[in-house]
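Quick one, T. Sequence first:
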Amino acid sequence: MDAFLASRVLTKDDDWADAIGRAVSMQAAADDVVRAVVQQARQNGATWQVIGDALGVSRQAAFQRYGRPIDPRTGEPMNTTPLPGAAELAASVIGDLASGRWARVTGQFDTTMRDGLSEDALAAAWAQIVGLSGALEGRGEPEVTRAGDVTITNTPLSFEAGDYTARIAFRDDRAIAGLHILEGQTP
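Structure tokens:
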């Protein structure tokens, strides 16, 4: 909204909270229109590349936001809604790693993770990162997405001498299905 329009929408007598609420409602309505037009475009044969170009994003970003992936195992639409509270779960796991609470982390592993990564191996992996880059100094806001049967969180980590990304995958029962500490920060 440009300054002229904002000046017409907001007067000195307006309640700012109401004005913000109206703006959010307009934004939601605009998002609904964009979603409907994208669906129509797809039904009429437009590619994700064309849609992404129109939106000013990559075709993958357009698909991730507006696509309806079909599960190849069942032929049904996939659940694309991330696990509620996944960002908080990731923050808790990272806090446990930084505090050396290895048993607490491995206690959240699903069966496959439990069979593949012991408490001692987890501690050794974290020690290797600390040995290379120093202590954990902070973490950023996690990016949360749904991929198939898991919710994936990518959380930027800042150590004394290096940046990493904690990629943690959670099953719907909140069990950890994957845990990776990647060098560098994901875009």
